[in-house]
Amino acid sequence: MRMLVRDLVPPSLVGGRTVFPMLSKVAREVHASSGTRAALAVLRQAKGPLREAFGATFEGAAAHALALKTLNILLTQQQMRTRSATVASRPVGLVVDPTNTCQLACPGCVHSTHNEERKIFDWPNGTLTGDRFEKLLRQYGPYAVGVYFCDYGEPLLNVRTPSLIRQAKQYLLATKLSTSLSVKKLDAEALVASGLDFMVISIDGATQDVYEKFRRNGNLELALSNIRRLVAAKKKLNSRTPALSWNFLAFEHNVHQVADAARLAKQLGVNQFRVVDPFDVSWDDPSIRPAPEQGSVRRFDWVSASNHPDNWNPFPDSLEAEAITTAFEQAWESDAGIVDEEPSSGHSCRWLYENMIMDATGRILPCCGAPSQSGGLIFGNVDEDADPFNSAKYQEARQFFSGKSAAENVHCSNCEWDQEQVNIGGEEIRRYFRAADSAIFDRSARELLSESL
């Protein structure tokens, strides 16, 4: 109710003061900049006043973080618009695999039986450590708005995952996790207490025989039991988070069970049930075919399905204040390494500017595509590269898409993926700033920050 009131009542009536006029002015100046250097000059001038504006409501590191995150989004918009190859912006969203392993063998995944036997993909086993994740967070966490804990691994197979989530929250990042929940060891209370905002639970059937046709090696009853444990843990700890979303991939073999699964989801106490149109995996298993378009969402608890103000900064006494403040002080203060390039209006890929992926071994990938044995999709390594987001492969890919390079050996030249939809984009940005403070970040401010992202 508190969040709904703050979102619906005009800021003037609740003592809030929107930052939209200030952000709008900065956005116009950044977007009108002749090049990256000019844009950075605008950010340098705006950084202090914006931090002061946030300081009236947010303490210390939180004000620094909000200034960095908002200005980085405006810079990302400019870098995407001009199709810059070398970027001064940082990823708005991070996608991280707590582990590269998975106990299932779903068709279309790097872990499917077909792909494992033929070694089609370069996907080594590995488990993410807190130290490696901290390297990523120190470099990019102060600027980003969210972390999505899942790419091709089952995140709950890493017993450190709750502590990794808490690390992310210490950088004021929204946190989302995707799991099959078909895991034998689940510390439900640790997950609830970690600060996790949102959990996607992938269950594609209401009976074991239908469920396992796609979720191979999965145990439906185990997944349902773990839902019960999570719901019980939320009640015990008096927590509305994480919001639980049962996601049902609709195939020809399971679409007849959508209604049964939705009823079961409501009975178990999840917050929403979502029918998802899946990717075509018939290249891996011709017997698994997507059903005609079924996409829909049924919300059983509208309040819990949204980000919560109380969970935006759940650990205020343990924020990574030094790392955030240092990033704020150093951000955009130097033009060293900046290349002012001729702007281009050619097509590009949003992944190359907005999100960055790291697997459990520290490898950096530009998108959620899986690397083949050629290794072309591996763009860097967090343990080896000073700035993976500006690696040679990142720059080559951005140049290729912008039309500044006709090189045919760039991995992205054969891309067949969706280049417009990223894991953490406009919708996630709007949710993030509404959770931070929906009066200060009113609707106009949120729309400005999510524009084209």
Give an overview of the whole structure:
- The protein has 453 residues and is α/β, with parallel strands linked by helices.
- Helix content is 40%, strand content 10%.
- The protein contains 18 helices and 10 strands.
- It has helices spanning 2-8, 11-14, 20-31, 36-55, 60-82, 113-118, 130-140, 161-169, 188-193, 208-211, 220-236, 258-268, 309-312, 321-330, 351-354, 392-402, 426-437, 443-450; strands at 93-96, 146-149, 174-179, 198-202, 243-249, 272-276, 296-299, 355-358, 363-365, 380-381.
- Strands 7-6-5-4-3-2-1-8-9-10 form a 10-stranded mixed β-sheet.
- Strand 5 (243-249), helix 12 and strand 6 (272-276) form a beta-alpha-beta unit.
- Helix 3 (20-31) packs parallel to helix 5 (60-82).
- The radius of gyration is 22 Å and the shape is globular.
- It starts with a helix and ends with a helix.
- Mean pLDDT is 92; it is low at 9-14.
